[in-house]
Amino acid sequence: MELILSTSPAELTLDPACQPEPIPRSNLAKLTLDPAHQPELILSPRLSELTPGSACHPEMTLRPGSTELTLEPVHCRPELLDACADLINEQWPRSRASRLHSLGQSSDNFPLCLMLLSSNPTPGAAPIVVGHARLSRVLDQPQSLLVETVVVARALRGRGFGRCLMEGLEVFAQARGFRRLHLTTHDQLNFYAHLGYRLGEPVQGLVFTSRRLPTTLLSAFPRAFPPRPPCNVLSPTAQAAPRAPKGPSLPPPPPLPEPLTSSSLLPARPLPQNLLETQYCDLRGCPIFWMEKDI
């Protein structure tokens, strides 16, 4: 006869063939922030229930050490919208109303905002918003997603939560049939490189107000444009040039030969980017690196 009691904090197994031995459980409700501890990713079995057609996806459970974390869509936890907006605004200040409006547009059809949550040590209190990331579909790449607005609470950085967030995003995307993630970064190249990301080409995320742009235009959009000389436009009030007297027209002069240069012999190609420099810039003119990963 074997009796298993699993409802108490300790798990006790009684078996006549062996001596009873209490097995204590770790307190999952306590937030452990040990800088020397390396988090470990353990996925909940409920991930197999994740289907694209579900209204609210089951949560994904991540357990770095004894800290229980869940990765959940924002639209499934509307009571945490304010806390999530505060977390993002801590890194990128913005109008609160505008931030809440953007988060409120999250849906299963993408773009979709995800929160990394930690159980609160206070009984009955709301979970702690540890991190946030946004996923958008990619134009002309049905199996790709664009990762944006990746942020971890400032007080919890450097302790492995960023890695848990990114690894959770990969599992979430894989469960929905996606095979590649794209992102941009200004100064976190080494972090993403350690996670398996490599330098890639620009892509266009499909957002709420975006229009479908041609791929040829997209390839030039993220790059820094050289200054253009001012165009001389004739004023409508300017006097017209005097007309030539009527008579037999003279043949036009032959065109001048074009000087041969190295640029005219070879087609223009984009400059290669590396971990030290890039040819791409954001809308403010700051250098930006495009990275991607197959999942």
TrEMBL record:
Which GO molecular function annotations are given, in alphabetical order? acetyl-CoA binding; N-acetyltransferase activity
What Pfam families is this protein classified in?
Acetyltransf_1
Supply the InterPro entries for this chain: Acyl_CoA_acyltransferase, GNAT_dom, NAA80
- UniProt region (Disordered), positions on chain: 230-264
Catalytic activities: N-terminal L-glutamyl-L-glutamyl-L-glutamyl-[protein] + acetyl-CoA = N-terminal N-acetyl-L-glutamyl-L-glutamyl-L-glutamyl-[protein] + CoA + H(+); N-terminal L-aspartyl-L-aspartyl-L-aspartyl-[protein] + acetyl-CoA = N-terminal N-acetyl-L-aspartyl-L-aspartyl-L-aspartyl-[protein] + CoA + H(+)
Protein family? Belongs to the acetyltransferase family.
| Function summary | N-alpha-acetyltransferase that specifically mediates the acetylation of the acidic amino terminus of processed forms of beta- and gamma-actin (ACTB and ACTG, respectively). N-terminal acetylation of processed beta- and gamma-actin regulates actin filament depolymerization and elongation. In vivo, preferentially displays N-terminal acetyltransferase activity towards acid N-terminal sequences starting with Asp-Asp-Asp and Glu-Glu-Glu. In vitro, shows high activity towards Met-Asp-Glu-Leu and Met-Asp-Asp-Asp. May act as a tumor suppressor.
Output this protein's name: N-alpha-acetyltransferase 80
Q: Which organism is it from?
A: Pteropus vampyrus (Large flying fox)
* Recorded name of the encoding gene: NAT6
